[in-house]
Design goal:
The chain is 25% helix and 24% strand.
Length: 389
């Protein structure tokens, strides 16, 4: 790094951008963080109240390692700040007849030293009588996992950046002009441009529009509906006291959070939804999605079959074709970094991604090939769907 104390401008105050900005500041860089609508805003991929955090990733052991590191960093920052964002309820995995993902997940967790508690279906029924384990063949618990407060964490990370001497600006950026292979300033839609030594674009679902020639359709936004159901008054069976967060991994991957910041019993289908415009897309729930969530509850949580539907939200995944993250330099400008492709599983990794990207920038290192743009030999076809999330 040519500058002893480089000025890094980070565009996007979600999980990737916010944590990267904070980690850069912790390591001595001058940092300006900007966002068009604010940290954790409703249209961002890091918006909403809660997210599951788990380290189970099948054979993708690099994400298991990253999630284990992220869990450690969430705990360390909570202890440092005196704030709680991680609710370590554990995450209960339920699988159908196909054991391949379950077996690969347990192997990767064991290799990282992560705790795993295994159950037979009959043992699980006794431990969690609220759940019907019909058609479930494999059950295990990640006891060190749980769920996170998403929007509040984004807000607090930005606040910590400012408290540490960084700058936060509420502003919208325009695509940069790369003169001679180097970016020197960031033009804003309103106001004077921001000069900088390094620019990090963590624009979530807007990354493709910001860099149509380099990213384009490598990152797309998909519409994901989330629903909340009211539990019986004073009943601890369907709160953090009585249940961990859970993932039903069968023909579809459906997940939920019982406690869920007191918003209701959360149910969401992880199946990739239709494409949407993250800026103008409609965010009202569809009756069909509500009915599907209720049908699932009737099967898996029978006591909630008639629970009132107390709320919903439409978020989006910002997915890459292989559902791996994009962490790489712009091919035409070495001082411009592109972060994205969270693909529905990126939020939990924020502290670990921030740590990684800060090291890459300040130590002038190259990212792992799994995150590099060069892995995409050709643009994806129209209407593609991620292979995994």
């Amino acid at each position: 790094m040519s500058a002893a104390r480089p000025h890094v401008v980070v565009i996007g105050a979600g999980a990737f951008g916010g944590w990267t900005a904070l980690e850069l500041r912790r390591r001595g860089a001058a940092v300006t963080l900007i966002d068009a609508w604010g940290p954790g805003h409703v249209r961002s991929s890091s918006g909403g109240e809660t997210r599951v955090i788990r380290a189970g990733y099948g054979s993708r052991a690099h994400y298991t390692r990253m999630a284990v590191r992220a869990l450690a960093l969430w705990r360390a920052r909570e202890a440092e700040w005196g704030r709680r964002f991680l609710h370590d309820t554990g995450v209960l995995w339920m699988f159908g007849g196909d054991r391949a993902f379950a077996d690969a997940t347990r192997q990767a967790l064991h290799a990282c030293g992560a705790a795993v508690r295994e159950f037979t279906p009959s043992e699980a029924e006794r431990a969690f009588p609220q759940i019907s384990f019909e058609d479930v063949s494999t059950v295990f618990l990640e006891p060190d996992a749980g769920w996170l407060l998403a929007r509040r964490a984004c807000e607090h990370v930005a606040e910590r950046l400012v408290a540490a001497g960084g700058v936060y600006r509420h502003a919208a950026a325009v695509p940069p002009a790369l003169d001679g292979g180097t970016a020197t300033r960031l033009q804003l839609q309103e106001g004077d441009p921001i000069a900088g030594d390094v620019f990090v674009f963590a624009c979530g679902p807007w990354l493709g529009a910001m860099f149509p020639d380099v990213i384009g359709s490598l990152v797309v936004a998909t519409r994901q509906e989330v629903h909340y159901f009211g539990t019986p008054a004073g009943d601890p069976r369907f709160t953090d006291e009585g249940l961990p967060a859970w993932i039903d991994f069968r023909q579809r991957q459906i997940y939920g959070i019982p406690g869920n910041a007191h918003r209701g019993f959360k149910v969401a289908d992880d199946t990739t939804g239709p494409l949407m415009d993250p800026t103008t897309g409609d965010r009202n729930a569809t009756p069909a999605s509500v009915s599907a969530a209720r049908a699932f509850l009737a099967q898996r949580f029978p006591a909630l079959a008639d629970a009132p539907h107390v709320g919903s939200e439409v978020c989006q995944y910002e997915s890459s074709p292989d559902a791996d993250f994009i962490i790489d330099r712009h091919p035409g400008a070495a001082n411009v970094w592109l972060l994205g492709g969270g693909s529905g599983h990126g939020f939990k990794m924020g502290p670990a991604v921030g740590e990684l990207v800060a090291s890459l920038i300040l130590e002038e290192r190259d990212p792992d090939p799994v995150y590099r743009l060069s892995r995409f030999a050709a643009p994806p076809p129209d209407g593609w769907q991620p292979k995994w999330s």
